[in-house]
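Project outcomes to date are best conveyed with an example. Our students and postdoctoral researchers have been running inverse folding experiments weekly, and each run begins with a structure described purely in C-alpha cells. The record below, which covers 267 residues, was selected by the lab manager from last quarter's runs and is presented without edits.
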C-alpha cells in the first residue's frame, strides 16, 4: 500500500465499470470517524457522477469489515450537554444508506470480518452480500443503550423476520457468517482467501450485463416491500415498458437471435 493510500480512510478504484470502495482504517476495524464519513461521501459522489460505473463493490481492509462508529469520536464530557446523535445520522450514516439504496446499479458487499453496529447495516443495505467464513454480524447498539440505526430496523425484519430481528436487536447476539446465510440475512459464504476475488469477479460480470435493466429490477424489488399486489403489477408493467425501450434489450434480442454473445452498454 502506498503512503498516499495509507493516509486515506476510504480507497476508491474504478476499473472496467466496477467501482470498489475499500474501508481503510484497519487499525480501528474500519470504524467510522468524521474524516472517514467525509471521504465515504466523496467516494459515493464520484461514483454517482461517473456514467462508466455499472457495479459497486464495498469491502474492508484488515481483519474487520466495519465496527460501526468509532466511539473515540463520542467521548462524553461531564461538563457538556448530551450529543445529538440524530444529527450525526442525518449528516452521515443516513446519506450512505440512501446512496446505496438508490444507486441505479448493483451494489455488492464483501464482508471480510466483523460487521458490527452501523457496519453490519451498511453491509445489509447492499444488494448482494457475500461474507468470509470468519465474518460475523452484530447489532451492537443495545450494548451501549442505543437504537438500531443505519437502516438496520428496516433491513433486518425484511431479511430474517420480525421475531428474529427483535431478538438480534435486543440481545446483540453475534451471528456467524454461516448462520447469517442460513437465516437469509446474506447471499453466500466463501473461504476467507477466496472472498475478494469471488466478489470482484461477480462485480466485473455484473458490469458487463444490461445494467439499466438491473437497475429497474432493483427498484421493483425495493418498492415491492411497501406495495400491494395491484400496485406492484402496475409497477412491473411500467418498468417493463422502460426496459423494452432500452438499447440493451435490442442488443440482447439481436444477440440471442444471431446466437452471439451480447455486448451490453448499460442503457
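After processing, the design step wrote out the following sequence:
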Amino acid at each position: 500500500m502506498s503512503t498516499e493510500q495509507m493516509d486515506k480512510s476510504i480507497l476508491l478504484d474504478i476499473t472496467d465499470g466496477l467501482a470498489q470502495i475499500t474501508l481503510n482504517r484497519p487499525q480501528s476495524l474500519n470504524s467510522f470517524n468524521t474524516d472517514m464519513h467525509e471521504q465515504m461521501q466523496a467516494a459515493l459522489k464520484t461514483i454517482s457522477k461517473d456514467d462508466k460505473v455499472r457495479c459497486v463493490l464495498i469491502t474492508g481492509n484488515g481483519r474487520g469489515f466495519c465496527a460501526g462508529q468509532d466511539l473515540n469520536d463520542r467521548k462524553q464530557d461531564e461538563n457538556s450537554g448530551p450529543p445529538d446523535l440524530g444529527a450525526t445520522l442525518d449528516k452521515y450514516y443516513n446519506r450512505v444508506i440512501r446512496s446505496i439504496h438508490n444507486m441505479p446499479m448493483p451494489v455488492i458487499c464483501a464482508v471480510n470480518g466483523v460487521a458490527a453496529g452501523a457496519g453490519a447495516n451498511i453491509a445489509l443495505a447492499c444488494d448482494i452480500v457475500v461474507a468470509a467464513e470468519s465474518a460475523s454480524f452484530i447489532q451492537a447498539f443495545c450494548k451501549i443503550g442505543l437504537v438500531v440505526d443505519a437502516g438496520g430496523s428496516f433491513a433486518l425484519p425484511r431479511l430474517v423476520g420480525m421475531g428474529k430481528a427483535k431478538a438480534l436487536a435486543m440481545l446483540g447476539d453475534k451471528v456467524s457468517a454461516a448462520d447469517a446465510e442460513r437465516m437469509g440475512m446474506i447471499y453466500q459464504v466463501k473461504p476467507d482467501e477466496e472472498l475478494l476475488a469471488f466478489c470482484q469477479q461477480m462485480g466485473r460480470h455484473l458490469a458487463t450485463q444490461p445494467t439499466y435493466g438491473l437497475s429497474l429490477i432493483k427498484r421493483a424489488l425495493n418498492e415491492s416491500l411497501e406495495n400491494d399486489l395491484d400496485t406492484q403489477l402496475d409497477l412491473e408493467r411500467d418498468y417493463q415498458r422502460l426496459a423494452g425501450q432500452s438499447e440493451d434489450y435490442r442488443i440482447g434480442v439481436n444477440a440471442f437471435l444471431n446466437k452471439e454473445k451480447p455486448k451490453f452498454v448499460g442503457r
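The mean pLDDT is 93. The first helix runs from residue 3 to 6. The training component of this project remains on track.
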